[in-house]
Amino acid sequence: MLLRGMLITRNVTINGRRTSLRLERENWLAMEEICERESLTSHELCSLVDRHRANFSRTSAVRAFITAYFRELADSQTHRALNVNAEPTLMQRLQPQISS
Question: DSSP of 49-67, one letter per residue?
C-alpha cells in the first residue's frame, strides 16, 4: 500500500461540540471499521477517545487509539489460536465509561 500522506478533514461532534479532525484516508477507513465492529458512531468513538487522551492532541489520540485497537485485535486472535486466556480488550476496559 502506498501512503501519499494526504490528510482528509472531516467534521465530528466530540462530547457535544463540533470540531474537525485531519487524518489520512487509511485512518478514516480504520475508524469506520472500528465503529462498525463496536456498533458506535464516529462521534461516539471520538468522544470516547477524547475523554481518555491525556496530554495528546485529539488527532494524535485518535491515531494512537486506532493503532492500539488493531494491535490488540491481532493479539487476541493469536491468543485464541493458541487457546490462551486473553486480558479484557481495550473496548471492554473502556465500555463502562462509554455511557458516562
Answer: HHHT-TTS-HHHHHHHHHH
